[in-house]
Amino acid sequence: MTIEFAPFIPWFVLAMLAVLILLLLGVGLMKRVRGTVLRFVASAAVLAALANPLLLQEEREPLSTIVPVIVDRSQSQEAPGRTAMTDEALKALTNRLSRFARIEPRIVEVKNPPTNDSPSTRLFEALASSITDVPPTRVGGAIMLTDGQVHDIPAIGQSLGFNAPLHALVTGKADEFDRRIEVRQAPRFGIVNDPQELTFRVFDDGRKTDAPAEVTVLMNGEEIARLNAVPGVDTPLSFKVPRGGTNVLEFDVAGAPGEVTDINNKAIHLIEGIRENLRVLLVSGSPHAGERAWRNLLKSDASVDLVHFTILRPPEKQDGTPINELSLIAFPTRELFVEKINDFDLIIFDRYQDRKNVLPILYYDYIAEYVKRGGALLIAAGPELASEDSIALTPLSSVIPAAPTGEMHEAAFYPRLSKEGERHPVTRGLDGSASEPPAWGRWFRSVDVANPDGETVMTADGGRPLLVLNRSGEGRVAMLLSDQGWLWARGFEGGGPHVSLYRRIAHWLMKEPELEEEALKARAIGRTLEVTRQTIGDKPGPATIRTPSGKTETLDLTETIPGLYRGERRMDEIGLFTISNGDFSTLVHVGAVDAQEFKAMVSTTEALAPIAAATKGMVARLDNGNGGIRVPDIVPVSSEVRVTDNRRMLIRLTDETVLKGVNTLPLFAGFAGLAVLLFAVSATWWREGR
C-alpha cells in the first residue's frame, strides 16, 4: 500500500496556508495563548483534508517464467535411434514442465533451412529468436535436446541474452563410433590427361585405430584406384582427368562394424577438365572449293592446333618442273602416321584418295589401330570415295562405317535430319531443321553407300545416308558423304549451319560429354536437383534418386525436345545423391561439399559442457544404458542460481509481475474525514469555552 495526494487546491496555496498556520502556532506559543495547540491541530486537519490524501493498493499478478526448449531436428539427428530418443525426451520434458504453473515452456524445433546450401546446426540462433519478445529477467533457463554437434556455440563470456542456466540433454550413446572421409586438398581444374595430385583423409571418430581402411576411388562412375588409408593420416592420390567438362571423383571408404551411419562414408570432388589445345591433322587430297571451309573453321578455334597438308603434287604428277624450283615440302608420312599419330586428337581426310606412292598401305593399318585404341577419324568425302582409289578399299575399311557402291548421286536436295538425327545431340536442333523443307540451302551431290553401320543422322536425296556416325573399338568415326558443305559457308540460297554442324561432329568425335547419345547427367542448383537423360532410343522411364539418408525416390522425366528428358525436384536433404536410370548412374552433391552438418556424426557432451558450466547448467546423456532414457528432474528456485547441480536441472523463477488494477481510498472522504474535522473544531470550541 502507498499514500498519494490529490489536492483540491494548488500545492503552492496549501504551502502558503501551512506557513501561515506555523506562524500562528509560533506566535501563540510565544505569547502563551490558551488553545494554541488545539487550534493548530484543527487547522492541520483542515489543511490535510484540502490535500486530499489517498490510500493506494495495487493488484498485481505474477508473470510466468519462460523456459525455451530447443529441439535439434538437423540431419545428424536422423542417425538410428536419435529421433526416437528425442521424441521420447521431449514428451517427458513437456509433461514435467506442465506441473509447474509458473513455468511457460516454449518448444522450438530447429531444422536445416531449406534455403541453406551449407547446412549446420544453429541452436543458439533459434534460442535467441525464441526470447526476443520477453525481458531477460523472465527467462528462467533453457533446455536443448541435441546430439551435441552444434555449430554456433558462443564463446565463453559472451552473453546469451539472459542470466539463467543452460541445460543440454544429449541423444546417442557414450561409446559411439563413426567413420568418415574428407577430401583435404585437391585442384578445381586440371588439364585433360595430365597427372593430378590430391590428398584425402579417413577419420575414425570416437575410436582410435591404426588399422588401414580400404578406400575405393571412382572417376565418373568407373573405378580408378583402390587404396588402404590409415585413419587420421593424409593419403595422396595421383590421377588423370579423362575428359573435358565436369568430372566427378568419388571416394568410398569401407564401413566399419557398429558405426553410427554410412552417410559420410562417401565424399566427392568435382574437377573441371580443361583440354590443352586440341591437335587436329587435316589432310586434303587436292585443292577444291570446300577445302577452306574445314580449314577456316579449325583455324578460328583458339583451342585447336591445326596441322594441314594439301596434296598439291602427287608422285604421279610429272610436269617437268625441276625439284629445286618447287616451293613445296614433302609430305612427312612416317612422322605423322607412325611416330606422332597418337599425338593427334582428330584426323580428317578431306576428299583424300589412296595414292600408293603417298601413303603406304601399311600406314592405313596404323590409322585403323589408332582409331580402335581411342582415336577419332573424320572422312569428308567427294567423288574420290566412289573411285577405284577410294580409301574405303584400304585397311581403313575395318573402321569405316559405310562402304561406297561406286556411284555418285547427282541431284539437288535439301540435307535433312533422319529420325535418329532429330534425337542425336550432334544434329538435334540445328538452326533451320524444324521447317519443311529445311530453312537452308541445297546441295547437289552425294556418295552412294550400302548398309551403313552406326547412326545415320542426316540424309540426302531419297533418304540416302549423308552423315554417318559410328564407334569402332574405343574410337569414333564420322563420314560426311558429300563435299558440298562449302555452299552453306558461301551463303548459297541463304547458306546453312555449317559451323555448328562441323564443330559438333568434331567434338562428338573427341568424346565431348555434352554430345554423348546416351547419357545421364545431374546437377544441383541450390537445393533443386535437376536430372537430364539424353537418349536416341525409346522413352527412358523415371529416374531413381537415392538420398544421403538411404531413402529412395522416383523422379518422372519429361521430354523437352526430341531425345532430351528432364526432371527436377527440390530436395530436403543435403549431401551426396545417387541418380540412376536403366544401366546409367551418376552422382551429384546437393549443397556445399564441405557442409559442417556431415563432418562429424558422433554425439558428444564435450561441445556444450563449457557454456553450460558457465551458466550453472548441466549436460547429461539421455541414454540410461538399458535401452531407455533418463530425463533429469526439474527443480524451480526462487533466487539466482549460484551453483551447478549435476543431477537436476535448476530453473530460476522470475519475480516479475504485471499490474492488473489499483484501488484508491480517500482518507478524508465520507464519515471518517467529517468525524476528524468535527472533533478538531469541537475540541477548539470546548477549549475556548473554558
Which helices and strands occur, and which strands form pairs?
Layout: E1 2-5, H1 11-30, H2 36-51, E2 53-62, E3 65-72, H3 82-97, E4 103-110, H4 123-130, E5 142-146, E6 166-170, E7 178-185, E8 189-191, E9 195-205, E10 213-219, E11 222-229, E12 234-240, E13 245-253, E14 266-274, E15 278-284, H5 291-299, E16 304-310, H6 333-339, E17 346-350, H7 361-372, E18 376-380, E19 403-413, E20 416-417, H8 419-423, E21 443-450, E22 455-459, E23 465-472, E24 475-480, H9 486-489, H10 498-509, E25 519-525, E26 528-534, E27 543-546, E28 552-555, E29 558-561, E30 564-570, E31 575-581, E32 584-590, H11 609-614, E33 619-621, E34 633-637, E35 648-652, E36 657-666, H12 670-689
Parallel strand pairs: 3-4, 3-5, 5-6, 6-33, 8-14, 15-16, 15-17, 17-18, 18-24, 34-35
Antiparallel strand pairs: 1-2, 2-36, 7-9, 9-12, 10-11, 10-13, 13-14, 19-21, 20-22, 22-23, 23-24, 25-26, 26-30, 27-28, 27-31, 29-30, 31-32
Helix pairs in contact: 1-2, 2-12
Explain this structure.
Helices cover 20% and strands 34% of the residues. With 690 residues, it is of the alpha/beta class. The protein is elongated, with a radius of gyration of 46 Å. The two termini are 42 Å apart. The strands form nine sheets. It has an eight-stranded mixed sheet with strand order 16-15-17-18-24-23-22-20.
Number of beta-strand segments = 36
Alpha-beta content class: alpha/beta
Cα-based radius of gyration, to the nearest Å: 46 Å
Low-confidence stretches: none
Please tell me what the overall shape is.
elongated
Strand content: 25-35%
CA-CA gap between termini: 42 Å
Helix content: 10-25%
Largest sheet: 8 strands, mixed
Strand order of the largest sheet: 16-15-17-18-24-23-22-20
Mean pLDDT: 85
Number of helices: 12
